[in-house]
Amino acid sequence: xxxxxxxxxxxxxxxxxxxxxxxxxxxxxxxxxxxxxxxxxxxxxxxxxxxxxxxxxxxxxxxxxxxxxxxxxxxxxxxxxxxxxxxxxxxxxxxxxxxxxxxxxxxxxxxxxxxxxxxxxxxxxxxxxxxxxxxxxxxx
Length: 140
Hints:
Layout: E1 3-9, H1 13-27, E2 32-38, H2 44-51, E3 57-65, H3 71-90, E4 94-101, H4 104-111, H5 121-133
Parallel strand pairs: 1-2, 1-3, 3-4
């Protein structure tokens, strides 16, 4: 059975808990799932890199809320680029379930499908990995 690692940046615990729950719910149907917690999204790429040979795919979860400084843009750009580069370099799917929001209200809408018509970001990231590993290539 293929193994998936969820890397959960738990800076906003109320948000990350909902992301992990929805992601696990999807992934457990098809894969063996492990979870590790990191303090923030900036630590996600190194956690993936340290575990790249042990797992078949990854789901990156967390949240960044824009503040008054350019910190938001710098952290998001470097983290997202690193995740993409790891996926390409090691040919492994990495579902990106990191919420980027202007405020807490927007973040909560993306992690709780009951208050929004938008899907939960954790569920979306899990579906991306499932699509690649489980359904990706079909014989014609």
